[in-house]
Amino acid sequence: xxxxIKIDIDTRKNIFCPKCYTDLGLPVGVENLQFFECYNCDKxxxxxxxxxKNKTNRATQYPKKSKQTTILDSxxxxxxxxxxxxxxxxxxxxxxxxxxxxxSSNSKYNSNRSESSxxxxxxxxxxxxxxxxxxxxxxKYFRVNDQEVINQLLYxxxxxxxxxxxxxxxxxxxxxxxxxxxEKGSTQKLWVVPQHISKN
Length: 200
What we know:
- The chain crosses the membrane at residues 75-96.
- The protein contains four helices and nine strands, in the order ββααββααβββββ.
- The protein is α+β, with helices and mostly antiparallel strands.
- The chain folds into three domains: 1-64, no CATH class; 65-116; 118-199, SH3 type barrels (Roll).
- The strands form three sheets. It has a five-stranded antiparallel β-sheet. It has a two-stranded antiparallel sheet with strand order 1-2.
- Strand 6 (167-173) and strand 7 form a beta hairpin.
- The radius of gyration is 49 Å and the shape is rod-shaped.
- The protein starts with 34 loop residues before the first strand and ends with a strand.
- Residues 1-12 and 55-62 have low confidence and may be disordered.
């Protein structure tokens, strides 16, 4: 709280009122007061010789914290950082799971769409291999006319015969030497000669 003092003429040091220029003096001990009041014009003004002015302001601007307050502030800060980290981790995990499920549903949808637009049929009776290796080996056996091996492959179902008009879905291939297909209603991948199938 600011203190005000009425200055008497009986002084040993002089100070003047900024309003009426009256000689006010400066009694002993008054340097600890923040304000003066002129006895002549009642003007209140700051004490230019006040020694506690800066200390008071500094104390007001930067209050000293106790050790307990500092420790409590540290605990609260660390707790908030941990909570924020856990929340961000949870959000990241949720987003990744949501993204994966969304991509898988999109890929299934796109797969169904692409298969329905890639419907083919067999144009003449042809052989189909159940693996790429069997498909390439099949030509070696046909070239040397090894019918026993071909029959063995058919018996083991490594090779199957596709009748003309069989409905197929194109899954891949290079378009020149082989095409990867599956029969309608089957999940088995088959390797066939691309010249023996045509788009519906």
